[in-house]
Amino acid sequence: MKLTAEHTFASPEAAARKLVELAKSIEAVQDGRIHIEKVNAPFLYKLKGSGPQFGAGIKYAVEQGWLELHESGTYVRLINASGETTPALQP
Question: 12-78 has which CATH code?
Answer without folding.
Answer: 1.10.10
